[in-house]
Specification:
single chain; six-stranded mixed β-sheet
């Protein structure tokens, strides 16, 4: 039996350069502390003239001995070289196109898809381990643009089918901008959030409570019948002070040996 720790941090691209570098350092320091195999996040300041958050993630991740893939659309995945090797990365989507000619008040957003990275465990787990990061629209963005997060649910299923085949393991993390405690965000798909699995939905967003509070997730692929959640915690500002407006999610899973 192998225990795998997964951490997720939904970011805030509008923070200052000082706040971005501070949060990147704190993010990877905590990942090292808890022995995270993977760390994911969103809003890595993808704009060409505002890329300091992405630069900070790449720098701090490398210092902490992580392989980091930060996609230009804002999602990122970091894999710990302490536990994994033979890395690859890519992007699926976008499933919802980005908006053009709109401002934030009228639904502007980046293209929505899934950034992913994968590696092979140095010991203990058979098959590749792929971890994805995704950021879905807010209800206001969907209303303004006529889009729907159902496209993201379908895209997530396609991601799981591609990377969770045979002996391979897949996880998906992100900011759903939907209440995980009130709805099945994957709309009948085969990903299961750790909060749903454990039937415990702690608050993950520090400011906006209108959309509900359990809007970020760490999810495992239910077809990976070797994988089960054993622990889940959300660290608020009193436990891990960060500048972005979401809290840090840490999930622990057990992966059973593959029986041939």
């Amino acid at each position: 039996m192998t225990r795998v720790v997964i951490q997720h941090n939904s970011g805030q691209f509008s923070d200052t350069p000082f706040e971005h570098i501070s949060d990147a350092r704190a993010t990877f320091a905590h990942a090292v502390k808890v022995g995270a195999w993977a760390v994911t996040g969103t809003e890595s300041a993808n704009a060409p003239k505002n890329h300091d958050a992405r630069d900070a993630l790449l720098h701090c991740g490398a210092e902490a001995n992580f392989f980091v893939f930060a996609h230009p659309y804002g999602e990122w995945v970091a894999l710990n070289r302490r536990f994994l090797k033979n890395f690859d990365h890519g992007y699926m989507g976008p499933y919802i196109p980005g908006t053009h000619g709109l401002d934030a008040a009228h639904g502007a957003h980046a293209p929505r898809g899934i950034a992913w990275a994968q590696g092979v465990a140095k010991d203990g787990v058979t098959g590749k381990i792929t971890v994805g990061s995704t950021h879905w629209n807010t209800p206001a963005q969907n209303k303004a643009t006529g889009q729907s997060n159902s496209k993201m649910a379908k895209g997530s299923q396609a991601f799981g089918l591609r990377h969770g085949r045979d002996k391979d393991i897949v996880f998906l993390n992100g900011d759903a901008n939907e209440r995980d405690d009130a709805t099945d965000i994957f709309e009948g798909g085969d990903f299961l959030t750790i909060a749903d699995e454990r039937k415990d939905w702690p608050k993950t967003h520090g400011l906006n409570t209108k959309r509900g509070t359990a809007i970020d997730f760490i999810a495992s692929w239910t077809r990976d019948n070797r994988v089960s959640a054993v622990d889940y915690e959300v660290l608020d500002d009193s436990q891990l002070k960060l500048f972005f407006d979401h809290f840090v999610l840490v999930g622990t899973f057990e992966i059973r040996p593959l029986h041939r």
